[in-house]
Amino acid sequence: MIDTKNHVVFDLDDTLYKEIDFVKSAYQYINGYIKSKYALDLVKYIDDCVYQRQNFFDIIKENLKHYKDFTDEKYLELYRFHFPEISLDDGAKELIEELINKGIDFSIITDGRSISQRNKIDALGLTNDCSNIIISEETGFEKPHFNNFKILDRIYTNKKLMYIADNTSKDFLAPNILKWDTICLLDNGQNIHKQNFDLEFNYSPKLKITNLKELMV
Questions:
Q1: Which distant-in-sequence residues (6+ apart) come within 8 Å of 117 by Cβ?
Q2: Are residues 110 and 46 in the same domain?
Q3: Do residues 164 and 70 share a domain?
Q4: Nearest CA to 131 among 112, 147, 162, 107?
Q5: Are 149 and 119 members of one domain?
Q6: Domain residues for 118?
């Protein structure tokens, strides 16, 4: 389906890897910090917080209530800026390997903080192979704004652009109007943001897939 006439653009979170894995990585990192600094191990709470969507910070505050130096700001710093232990989903790994082997360039457009998103991309091993990394904090524009998509429109004037993403509320509006191909990776039950396909036409992807391997030739 993808060939050298395409420039492939990926969303990041819940598209190339599962964002819930970043959350778990962050909680484990924060727990390591707490264990080292306060000799307190909260590891038994992590799975419940990740999979039952409980608030890990509430548990920390309850257990560290006598320590005033562990603030909201410290928690957010550890959460946002840690270097995550995450990996590409199997389908993403296979598709990207095929793109590289066939000399098909790809880019990433993602919303989020610069250091957090770049750490994720680096942890996934994509930094050197990715042609363009466009992050909302660095440009000042978040999806569904057109700005970040138009950057690639201007670069790849002779390519058919394709955006592969997951968030129906914001990912597909701009690329649809810009006449890109839009592809939605369907939620396997682990996505942070649930998908809604009862939105107006321009918000809907042109194609839905269950695994990125479906795009391989």
A1: 12, 110, 133, 135, 137
A2: no
A3: no
A4: 107
A5: yes
A6: 6-17+87-215
pLDDT confidence of residue 67: 87
User: Average pLDDT of each block of 10 consecutive residues along the chain (217 residues)?
Assistant: 94 97 97 96 95 90 90 95 96 97 97 98 98 98 98 97 97 98 96 90 95 91
Residue among 215, 8, 15, 213 at smallest CA distance from 131:
8
DSSP label at 162?
A: E
Question: What's residue 54's pLDDT?
Answer: 85
| pLDDT score for 93 | 97
Is the separation of the CB atoms in 172 and 203 below 8 Å?
yes
> Do residue 132 and residue 192 come from a single domain?
yes
pLDDT number for residue 110:
98
Name the burial class of residue 115, with classes exposed (0-12), middle (13-18) and buried (19+) by CB atoms within 10 angstroms of its CB: middle
Domain boundary among 81, 96, 121: 81
Asked if 142 and 180 sit in the same domain, the reply is yes
Buried b or exposed e, range 175-201, using 16+ CB within 10 angstroms: bbeeebbbbbbebeeebeeebeeeeee
